[in-house]
Design brief:
Elements (H helix, E strand, L loop, with lengths): L1 H12 L3 H7 L1 H5 L2 H10 L3 E2 L4 E3 L2 H9 L3 E2 L9 H13 L17 H12 L2 H5 L2 H13 L4 E3 H6 L2 H9 L7 H11 L9 H27 L5 H6 L8 H14 L2 H16 L1 H9 L4 H11 L8 E3 L3 E3 L2 E3 L4 E4 L1 H4 L35 H18 L4 E2 L4 E2 L8 E3 L1 E3 L5
The structure holds protoporphyrin IX containing FE.
The site of protoporphyrin IX containing FE (HEM) has 23 residues, from α15, α16 and α20.
Pfam families: p450
Keywords: Heme, Iron, Metal-binding, Monooxygenase, Oxidoreductase
Protein name: Cytochrome P450
Amino acid sequence: HGFARLGISAAARKGDIQARYFVDPEVRADPYPFYDRIREQGPLVRGSLMWATARHDVASAVLRSDAFGVGFSDRRLPAPVALLWRLGRRTTPIGPVDPPSMLVTDPPDHTRYRRLVAKVFTARAIEGLRPKIEQTAQELLSDLGPRFDLVERYAALLPVTVIADILGVPMAMRRQFLDWGTMAAPTLDLGLTFRQYRRTEIGIRRSNAWMRGHFERLRARPGDDLLSQLVHLEGEQLTDDELLATAGLLLAAGFETTVNLLGTGAALLMTHPDELGKLRDDPGRWRGAVEEMLRYDSPVQNTARVCQRPVEIAGVRLQPGHVVVPMLGGANRDPAVFDDPGRFDVTRPNARDHLSFSGGVHYCLGAALARLEGEIGLKALFDRHPGLVIDGTPRRRRTRVLRGYASLPVAAPVTV
Ligand code: HEM
C-alpha cells in the first residue's frame, strides 16, 4: 500500500486527474461530479499510472473478462517491485488482502478456493441467519437512549456480531474480536500511513494467533457455525493458511462494508422522508430500497484489475501490466443505465443492476448476507424509531476505497 501511495501522491502532485481521485479531500467528500467528468472524457480514460472507467458497460466488461486478473501475482510486476513484493510477503502476516486470500487470487487457484468456501456459504445457510440477525438488531436497539451515535452504537456492532456467529467466536471473546477487526479492517483501503499500516498488522497478527487455536478447538469439537463446517469439509480441504485468510477476509469484508451500508442507508432515509414514507406504506419495498442505497452511495467505490494478455476494451488496446480501475460508484451513476442517476428513489426498478458487489469471478461472496443485514438492520431501526433525525454533524470516514460515515449523531424523539 505504501508504495502505491507514494506513486499516487507523486502523480497527483503532477496534476494527474485519476491520482487526484485518491488523494483530493474534495473528491473524497463527494466523488460523484468527478465520476461524471471521467465518464464524459471517454469509456476508458488514461492517467499516468492507470486507466479508469466510470461507465457501467465498460466496468462490467473488465470485471467479467478473463483477460484481467487481480494482479497480485508477481509474474506480471516489474522485477524490482516483484522483489519488494516477495520480501513483504515473507515478513507480513496473512491478512484479508494478502495471498492466499481469495480476493487477491486469480483462477485457477481462486476457482478451487472459492468453490470450497461457497460450499458452506450457501443461500440457505445465509437465510438461516435471519432470526439471529433480527434478535441481534433488537438487542442493540434496546440499549439505545433518545440520542446516540448511529454508527458507533448500532451500524458498527450488528455486522461484527453476525460475523462472530458465523466464525463461532465465543461470547467471552466478542469484545476482543471487535477490537482486532477494527484494527485490521483498514487494510482493505488504499493509502494507509505507516502508523495505520502497523496497526492493521498488529490486529491481523493477534487475530491470526487466536484463530489458529480456534481452528484446533473446532476440529476437536465443532459448533453449529459456518467455520466449523469449513474446517470439517469432506474430501478436498482448505489449508490452515487459506482458512486464516478466509476468516480474516470474512471479518474485514463483512465488517466495514456492511457498517457503511447501514450508516449510509440510515442517513439517506433520514434526509429523504418521502422515500422513508414509501417504505412505511409498503414494507415489501425494503428489499429494493437496500439495492438503491447500494447503488446511490456504494460502500465500496472502486477496485482494480491488471491486464494479463493483450485485449481490446471499448476500442482501446490494453497490454499486460496495464491497470484498470473500474469506478463502481461511478458506474452506479451512469445515466445510460439509470434514469436521473443522482436521484435517490427506493422504487427504482433496476437499482439491483448496480456494481457495488463487483462482478465476474470475484463477485461479493457475502452479497446475500449484506443484503439481509441491510434490510433487517434498517427496517428494525426505523420500525423502532420512525421519527429518527440527524442531530449534529455527520462525519465521513477518511477512506478512499470504502465510503461511509465514521459518525452519525441522531435523535429519536418518538419511541414505540
Ligand atoms: C468481495 C463488496 C459485504 C465477503 C467483494 C467485492 C466487493 C464487495 C466490491 C469484490 C471486490 C473486487 O471485485 O475486487 C461488498 C459490500 C458489502 C459486502 C458493498 C456490504 C454492503 C460482505 C460480507 C461478506 C463479504 C457481509 C461476508 C461475510 C466477501 C468475500 C469476497 C468479497 C469473501 C471475495 C470474493 C472473491 O474474491 O471471490 N465484496 N461486500 N462481503 N466479499 Fe463483499
